[in-house]
Amino acid sequence: MLRFLIGIVIPYIGVVGLLPWVASQDFYVLGIPFIYAWMFAWFVLTSGCLLLCWKLFDKHAETRNS
Fold first, then answer.
1. Contact, 6 vs 53, CB < 8 A?
2. Does the structure show a pLDDT above 80 at 58?
3. What gap in Å lies between CA 33 and CA 37, rounded to an integer?
4. Where do the TM regions start and end (predicted)?
5. How far apart are CA 11 and CA 45, in angstroms?
6. What's the rounded Cα separation, in Å, for the pair 38 and 27?
7. Which of 2, 14, 47, 61 has the most neighbouring CB atoms within 10 Å?
8. What angle do CA 50, 65, 5 make, to 5 degrees?
């Protein structure tokens, strides 16, 4: 269940759940609108969440099966 929370729920909340708040912000990050910076950041953060899931849960299962 924790793996599902880290890999799916956290990125979903970050992208979809917080979108109304992000859309209401009217400032720029490094010259681009905040909403675009937010979406781009979540590409990287989602990959980080999936990497964390793999390191914590699936990597150990892979070495046991070898």
1. yes
2. no
3. 7
4. 5-23, 35-57
5. 7
6. 12
7. 14
8. 25
Structure tokens at 6: 């880290």
User: 7, 49 in Cβ contact below 8 A?
Assistant: yes
Q: Which two tokens stand for residue 9?
A: 């729920």
pLDDT in tens, 6-47: 889 999 999 999 999 999 999 999 999 999 999 999 999 999
20 CB neighbour count, 10 Å cutoff = 8
Exposed (0-12), middle (13-18) or buried (19+): which is 50, by Cβ within 10 Å?
middle
Structure tokens that stand for 52 in this block: 């964390």
Across the chain, mean pLDDT equals: 89
What six digits make up the tokens of 3? 């793996």
